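S.,

As promised, the S-adenosylmethionine run. Input:
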Amino acid sequence: MSNGIEFAHVPVMVDEIVAAFVGIPAGVIMDGTLGGGGHSEALLDADERISILGVDRDAAALASASQRLARFSGRFRASHRRFDDVDGAMADAGVTELSGALFDLGVSSHQFDAVERGFSYRASAPLDMRMDARDPVSARDLVNESDETELVRILREYADERFAVRIARAIIAARPVEDTVRLADIVAAAIPAPARRRGGHPAKRTFQALRIAVNAELDVLPVALDHAIGRTVKGGRIAVLSYHSGEDRIVKERFRFHSTGGCQCPSHLPCGCGAERTVKLLRVASKPSVAEMERNPRSTSARLRVAEVI
Ligand SMILES: C[S@@+](CC[C@H](N)C(=O)[O-])C[C@H]1O[C@@H](n2cnc3c(N)ncnc32)[C@H](O)[C@@H]1O
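Predicted complex:
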């Protein structure tokens, strides 16, 4: 619970996630993005041979999911960490190997709905956007202290924002900017009117970019995938749900690396470089069903990739 709001988050591609782990060796699945615990609950219900190590950097998510999963007491443990700290989370739970790992990237609906967290441009709140309140840098710091080059980089790299320079200059001219709605208004005014009328709220991309920067979301992802693959037993699986191209590119690249062992030998010749393949790819950028996208529009951008450790 936060701000009197129930932890509301509809998990995406639940049947596909459960199917992704069917047949894995009995043991522990690390749910690196526990959130409201929806995926974990489905996995615990589906296979009594598995238990869950639930990781989240958001204390509110852990508290809420721990309550939801209390009925599985002996089969659920929680760890308040960033998901790239796979070893730390395993040590918290006294686990030495994994049978699988799940990463359902991005923010939960709950984090958006909890106005005081500052993730949403729809309601006035202090600019924050930290998933973990212990982290030192908030959106307020980035917005008020980054120079133009850095703001432009964040907007382009994390949200493909076409008007990055205009937005960065408008933000710098308006400083100090402390409030979500004020930032949204500054961004909207910086975007030319015809573009403002297309593609949803004009501040959506800026907020996405700042959130990704504040939480270093794209920096921690490759590390997490490498470590999870390294700690998972043969036949175990890694499933990742991503929600934008920046995330999916990283998942694709790391899965490709592990499925080729980094081999770049010409495809028409036998491999002579000694590269060791550590996974095989089972699912490549699967999308939700049309019915799910209609039921839950947030699922529309989801892409699921699954790899099995070999
Ligand atoms: C999309 S939600 C997960 C929802 C969850 N699968 C469910 O069924 O309710 C993403 C969650 O992952 C957490 N998260 C995002 N990045 C993280 C990271 N690097 N380390 C740990 N938790 C992270 C967020 O705090 C959020 O609670």
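Residues 9, 11, 33, 35-39, 55-58, 61, 82-83, 104, 106-108, 131, 220 surround S-adenosylmethionine (CB under 6 Å). Residues 136-214 form a domain with the DNA polymerase; domain 1 fold (CATH 1.10.150.170).

- D.
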